[in-house]
Hints:
Layout lengths: L1 H9 L2 H31 L2 H8 L15 H11 L7 E4 L6 E9 L2 E9 L6 E8 L6 H11 L4 H26 L6 H6 L9 H15 L1 H15 L1 H11 L29 H12 L5 E4 L10 E6 L8 E6 L6 E2 L11 H14 L4 H39 L2
Antiparallel strand pairs: 1-2, 1-5, 2-3, 3-4, 5-6, 6-7, 7-8
Amino acid sequence: MKNKKRKAKNKSAIRRLNDWLHLWLGLTSGVIVLVVSLTGCIYVFQQDIKDALEPWRFVEAQDQPYAPPSQLLDTAQAYMPGAKATGLTYATRKGAAAVGFSSFEEGKRSFTVVFMNPYTAGFLRKQQTIGSGQFDFFRFIIDGHRALWLPYEIGRPIVGVATLVFLVLLVTGLVMWWPKNRKKAEMKKGLTIRWNASFKRVNYDLHNVVGFYSLILALVLGITGLVYSFEWFADGLYYVTSGGESRPEHSHPHSDVSKAGLVQHNDSISPLDRAWYKAVALEPDAQGWYMTPILSDEDDAIELIAYQDDGAFYNHNTYFYDRYTLEPYRTRGDRFVEAGFADQLAMLNYDMHVGVALGLPGKILAFFVSLICASLPVTGFMVWLNKKKKSKKREKIRP
């Protein structure tokens, strides 16, 4: 007992404050960190699981051009009469094309996807993923991950604050882990799990050692998650990584309305199809495409995004065309390889957060790191509980 008191007194005020923060911040945020980490762990493989369970997402690859966007829209519209298409995607040569229909009715969002053969524009499947009244497992998981199944305006800030606290816990945990005596034997204790020790010791090592090994990747998951929680954090991260520049707002070129009607197009080929043919000629090996098929405002430009890697989103090229003249436009950051470091980091944010930036190995890594993050509140609570029980036993023994 005296040795314990002596050790506590030998700690500096800063170290005692660090330990106190780690304890109480961990206890107050533990349940939220557990939920967010577990749901994130599950969501990592959501696309792979969907691909395995939903065969209509795939077609037989053919040595012929894709059907143009207008044909896909005609097919999709036949199954969604009166609805407005909000997104159109082409996948890889073996992937189905899809047109999405998103709408808000009475404050509730509805989202339906029509899958088609990209070569023939033939109908494959109609699937309502939001607003159908049916249970969607991965929608349930992502709602828990982002907002703890609360209304998003309430849950998202709570998740954001808990994630911010988690980053503080990682730093304070590193301070607690760092041995004063850096001799080989002492360092080994902080780097090795003693599996043949008592349960309490193994639990302590699982919290201490595993937490240390996962520190860097856990920080990456936390930081990339905070980008979605707080605008001020996203702004600050961009400011730091760009060397003092402000994060640019999302912007896109505008079509020249004064030239509406002045340029005559062949009625058999729509401006969207013409833009599509132009972009495909520049990107014959693209691994996927996304576009907004129906423009809302008269000065909107046609936008097409060409993804360079199968399953990843960060490495993409964006093409803009005037809707009236088909004049091409360029904007800042419209080509990943040409963008500055801060812009590339912003494009990478989602792919780093879910691990797809490194392909399957990255997903596996993200899965295990998320699992470790979920375990830390549990093992940490058990460490605190064991110490509390031990302290009570000493008080009973004391005369």
